Amino acid sequence: xxxxxxxxxxxxxxxxxxxxxxxxxxxxxxxxxxxxxxxxxxxxxxxxxxxxxxxxxxxxxxxxxxxxxxxxxxxxxxxxxxxxxxxxxxxxxxxxxxxxxxxxxxxxxxxxxxxxxxxxxxxxxxxxxxxxxxxxxxxxxxxxxxxxxxxxxxxxxxxxxxxxxxxxxxxxxxxxxxxxxxxxxxxxxxxxxxxxxxxxxxxxxxxxxxxxxxxxxxxxxxxxxxxxxxxxxxxxxxxxxxxxxxxxxxxxxxxxxxxxxxxxxxxxxxxxxxxxxxxxxxxxxxxxxxxxxxxxxxxxxxxxxxxxxxxxxxxxxxxxxxxxxxxxxxxxxxxxxxxxxxxxxxxxxxxxxxxxxxxxxxxxxxxxxxxxxxxxxxxxxxxxxxxxxxxxxxxxxxxxxxxxxxxxxxxxxxxxxxxxxxxxxxxxxxxxxxxxxx
Length: 438
What we know:
Elements: H1 13-29, E1 30-35, E2 46-50, H2 56-63, E3 71-75, H3 82-90, E4 93-96, H4 103-107, H5 109-121, E5 126-128, H6 146-157, E6 165-173, E7 181-187, E8 191-192, H7 197-202, H8 204-221, H9 232-249, H10 255-275, H11 277-296, H12 311-323, H13 325-347, H14 355-382, H15 385-424, H16 426-436
Parallel strand pairs: 1-7, 2-5, 2-6, 3-4, 3-5
Antiparallel strand pairs: 6-7, 6-8
Helix pairs in contact: 1-2, 5-6, 6-8, 9-10, 9-11, 10-11, 12-15, 13-14, 13-15, 14-15, 15-16
């Protein structure tokens, strides 16, 4: 079935095929762990709300959760081009109009809200990023009223018989744009709309605020939330350092475990700020100095995990990378065209939080297209069907090998930096150790 706005809630076979491919690609880009998948009952009318940090990736992360076809609400300006609007509608996205779009445009929301009722009744799942736009920070901003308005108006239209629940989803990225970064998807406890309906009937404005407050708290429970925005960088560094210390003392740390370590540390810092502002400010100043130290020495917090590295193991890893370099070079040459195109496309966006989204979307097209073209060219040159098939198989394997080789190379480079500091600059190395223990 072709997807149009009037039937957007209906199941689409073509969309489902595309979804499998996108889900696979997303899981190639990020190492994804999901917690709480069992909490929502997909047979109920559900609105999923996520903390919006990483452009399109946040929506794709929610899409990947289940074998389903949810409908997404997005800002209206991306629908202005007719071709774009058709593509976005096929991708099961509906526009939501804001005051800045003009009063006449706002009136179009009535039709959109009616369509969301169809979506909820059909149990598709409705997905909204209630902060309105993305921001690459681990903090929840003030929620827009759209999610509350949709929930209450849907309940009102059906005489409070729907039983809508709002599902908080938290995202925690180890890095927003780097391939192979971890992504933890945390699904929280549902927030029921029903307890707020009486208040809505008497005072809609109060009901909006009360529901949004509860949704906001539910979202903060499943994400990292740094309240002190003026010292955001320092608090985030301290949270990262707490995880580094934990990893140095524990052999294997799962992503949910690491998330809890950072969340606990952020909570401790909030308590310190309340109970001992002077002690908090002193710690912040020390962390500022340590961040400056890291910048001067071109170190990232994650590289501090290599402080206990042995010289022997570092040499062995160097030899392994040296021996396998010809395989890396062959693999990289085979990937250079699609890699170059995806990087060029992402470089055209001034907002660097679009980088992963653009690379993923462009890569969905460029990699299979170039794999096919290169295989055809190889077949013409070689004249051997067997060799051509073998070459085609090596292409996706090359992508896997390049990723892992590159990952190990950067890890080895970090080890050498820290080892060099430990051997040749012991004073700086002591500063490094002291910083880890902040």
